[in-house]
Amino acid sequence: MSQNIDLHEIEKFSQLASEWWDPNGKCKPLHIINPLRLDYIVQNCGSLKGKDVLDVGCGGGILSESLAKLGANVTGLDLAEASLNVARNHALQNQLEISYINAPVEEHAQQFPAKYDIITCMELLEHVPDPASVINACATLLKPQGKLFLSTINRNHKSKLLMIYGAEYIRRIVPKGTHDFNRFIRPSELMDVVTNAGLQISDIIGMEYQLFKNKFILSNNVDVNYILMATK
Prior knowledge:
- The protein is 38% helix and 25% strand.
- The chain contains eight helices and eight strands.
- Helix 6 (131-141) links the parallel strand 4 and strand 5.
- The radius of gyration is 16 Å and the shape is globular.
- This is Ubiquinone biosynthesis O-methyltransferase.
- Belongs to the methyltransferase superfamily. UbiG/COQ3 family.
- It comes from Orbus sasakiae.
């Protein structure tokens, strides 16, 4: 099995490990959007209590912990061991039982097909060489009727202006070099990959960033950040 790994991206996020849980640090945007992501998942899945949930590209565990606090049995996957160590320690401090694993999702899919009720893969696809490989693995990991939540960034002039020039250079809310415009994914492209993986697209919604208010809202505008939900 070839590995769908970008070592530069792993190192980049490893260097952020100490800041994962600083709501005013370099991971501030993740703390801002986390309640929106969580609410959207709950709205579409109902109670998470007792459900098996996989968080692909979990980083320091921001979303993983929120899911666990709602009663889900959470597994977090990431390839940056430094981030996983932060996630494990933070979960321990908060008395949360979360299984954090350093492994590619493709490898996890070989070991645990049809294991999960819900899979989240947030802000990861634009950082891997082969997004389709990740999505195919997620499809394998889902139980029948299971739900997959993918979030990423649209590729157009507006997203380049807001997410790179605006967020990285003007507002400096994320480190320079966080995003590669060429890896942004148009909704039509993502929908094709999801459909080809044998999943049914259930919904797509935008996370609209209001630059000068420094906040995100859910909207029908998918010009920049968006979430796609699919069902097996």
